[in-house]
S-formylglutathione hydrolase (Suricata suricatta), 282 residues
Amino acid sequence: MALKQISSNKCFGGLQKVFEHDSVELNCKMKFAIYLPPKAETGKCPALYWLSGLTCTEQNFISKSGFHQAASEHGLVVIAPDTSPRGCSIKGEDESWDFGTGAGFYVDATEDPWKTNYRMYSYVTEELPKLINANFPVDPQRMSIFGHSMGGHGALICALKNPGKYKSVSAFAPICNPVLCPWGKKAFSGYLGTDQNKWKAYDATHLVKSYPGSQLDILIDQGKEDQFLSDGQLLPDNFIAACTEKKVPVVFRLQEGYDHSYYFIATFITDHIRHHAKYLNA
């Protein structure tokens, strides 16, 4: 599949690039960002996928999080896709910030008119890794995933729905129980319809209850002053309770004074890179 390079910038000895390609799953042109550390010049490196939150593109993480130095030091290729299909000419796709464009929620839509394009789950777990493995110096056997907010939800469900596929998972302020929060209810009813059993297949709190799997060490950072935490959008306590019940190891850190922004992410990003490097470089 043809890749078109959009940009390339030297950063901490490596290269931060952005590419565009025609996505089969999403039936549109998609962009993704990829950081190639210095080690990628001489051999295959592990791949760490980042999923961004509502309203974001591939740009937010690479310009605001400050992840490059740690990724360079640990020799990790870091991939950050866009958060939804774009420009699909679907009626209503640009009407609200929390549904449609910039708000794919990392599900495979089953409802018209969304089901033809809004297949972010398959894009992130299947199409994009195949594309990365075929075109860049990554080791397909060493892959991990993390994300923020809607993308934290995405990272958790990708790991929980695919035992053994990802070596590790982490999240910043993830939407942990979307079937019970306003964002999730809006997105899931639009993309997946009214059958709430279909919703549960993309809800980390429900997925962990039936997780069969191989060992998965989960790290979550949550800002204590996060307005969306107090608004009941994130519901981490429900996820922690389900993990505890299933004896799935989770480190949950409530960070005093921090909000939902990239200032919060930038403060703790090195901890998350280290968390993944421990498993990816083992």
